[in-house]
Amino acid sequence: MIVQVLIVLLKLVIAIAFIMASALVLIYMLRKVMGHMQSRVGPNRVGPFGILQTVADASKLLFKEDIVPAKVDSWSWRIAPSVVLMASMASFSFIPFAKNLTMVNSNISLFFIFAMSSLTSVGVIMAGWSSNNKYSLIGGLRSAAQVLSYEVPLVLSTIGVVMMTGSLNLVDIVEKQKHLFNIFPQFLGFLIFMTAALAELNHTPFDISEAESELVSGFNTEYSAMRFAMFFLAEFFNVFVIAALGAVVFLGGWNPVFIPIPGFIWLIIKSYVLIFVIMWIRSTFPRFRADQLLNIGWKLLLPASLINIFGTGIVMLITRGGIS
Amino acid sequence: MPFDLTKDIDTEVMEINFGPHHPSTHGVFRFVAKLDGEVVVDIEPYIGYLHSGIEKIAETRRYLQFLPLVNRLDYTASLTYELCLCLALEKMMEIEVPERAQYIRIMLTELQRIATHLIFFGTTGLEAGAYTPFLYAFREREVILRLIEMTCGSRMTTNYFRVGGCKWDLPGGFEDLCRKFIKKFPKRLDEYDWLLSGNEIFRDRTIGVGRLDADLAINLGVSGPTLRGSGVRFDIRKAEPYSGYDRFDFDVPYGLNGDVYDRFMVRVKEMRQSLRIIEQALDGMPGGDHIAKVPKVLKPPPGELYYRNEGTRGEIGFYIVSDGSTMPYRLKIRGPSFSNLMSLRHMMVGHSIPDIVLIFGSIDICVGEVDR
Predict the structure, then answer these.
(1) Can you list the domains of chain B with their CATH numbers?
(2) Residues 153-212 of A with CB under 8 A from B
(3) Which pLDDT value is given to residue A238?
(4) What is the pTM assigned to this prediction?
(5) Do residue B135 and residue A213 have CB atoms under 8 angstroms apart?
């Protein structure tokens, strides 16, 4: 019994250490990638090549005063960052890094990740509403509308893969891609997934709930110190989780591409390629307007993902004589 | 497109403050928007946060002492104000400006125009949510500011033009650097067209947003690129050529729909026209003096004069009443941003928050000259 508890605890510590480290790496990477794309150099003062910049920033946030504005709805205001962070950490635990290297191996892991990542927006809405700030309120409401309209195509875009695999288990999905990665038969699904994922992550061009030029900082305007850091970290966890999920579902997870190195390294490489694409988009595109965003979600992505499911079904009927 | 506000549910109107400290209001400008959901029902601008009483100060300063203060009106396009004041005084005192000085003035003012439009280009990108164009625009602007610093000794508050000419001649090496810039800049502009003005999302965001009809624009006293975006081909450089603008060959870009996109494109195209003017000025730069013989103490004869020229944001005007002494009896400044602000409500009502931020950016105000 004690051994089992210890194993779970050890797993937790390793996982948290890993995601903390990857969040720090991602923040550094974002700054460097965007810096070079914007003809500047990015951080280069703290440590060699500025590697320690994010560490310095994080410790600064830790030591700052925790300011609670006078008229916030105290309970939900305090709990909102934790909800966001908890949701993104929970979805992380279902990502399979290698065949025997997952925190939780469940039959519904894909489903669970989607469920958890939509919990994030509950936290965002809580933060926006309880801040008692008009900018935050609008940010929170926008986030609600955005999640409603993009969760649907995000989930439906992976249904094609699930049909081909016949399982919601991510380990099974990866095992099935030994010979052919899903991105080739499911390219449309992959495109829809990436687009909807950008909206899910509140990333450019769908970052309307933060929209710094309109809403100052959106839902997290009133937050400071560690509570702000929790939002910030959760954002980067989510980036990693979504990219890893994309790599697992569409890019063959830990299956190697030609070079045989340990599987989990392949998964991380693939995830970082997707993350790079996300950052590239972030430094290129302007932002959509809220109503345009809803139009794209409902009128373009949703029909496209339904067509994808329909097409997948027909092809499977013809080639296999039935859904596996 | 403006939103339809037909009611099917009961909603309350929410008032929200934009500014005086808000990322989208350039400088300390404030407007209160009444929102129904996200749609603007009414807006009310509040000005005066940057009031400096500069017109009153003018009455207690000699003309030459007042010249540096003019820089502080539109701190991003200080040379245009200097030029207008100098031209006004020259006209009052009937001073003939040497041709070389005229060419230098035009060249620097057009460089300044490009720099100011680059800020506009960058901040419009910023307001649409694209951060990268902003930094690219500032990279180009830096080259121009270096050129201006080389000539005037200062980057923004230049204080270079004098009544009768310029303070000193162009420095050595200016021409080479300027030609290098002229050669490189059009390619960069093409690149930026790809990045922002040709971007599908940006076009979706701006086309048809914040329309301002030509009639309304004229009645409100709107001027400059904002007016030309509405389809009125009025440019004081063409209509009443001053400082020898009639010797240069350039076009006046104008829009057709009067929306944010047109106002944006007018400015982007104006940058190319300014480049043409600079190139012609460099090619035809005459020799001679850089400043005319002017008395040490300026005493314009009694009388009054309104002089205007085309600033980067619209019509800059100086109304000077002289009583024959060394100081103006009264000096009234017309800042184009102030008049352009009047069109704000007409353009914004019926649009949502992301649009009003873009509309506000598209008239390109500088708070220094609004509040004066």
Answers:
(1) 13-371 (1.10.645.10)
(2) 204-205, 207-208, 211-212
(3) 85
(4) 0.86
(5) no
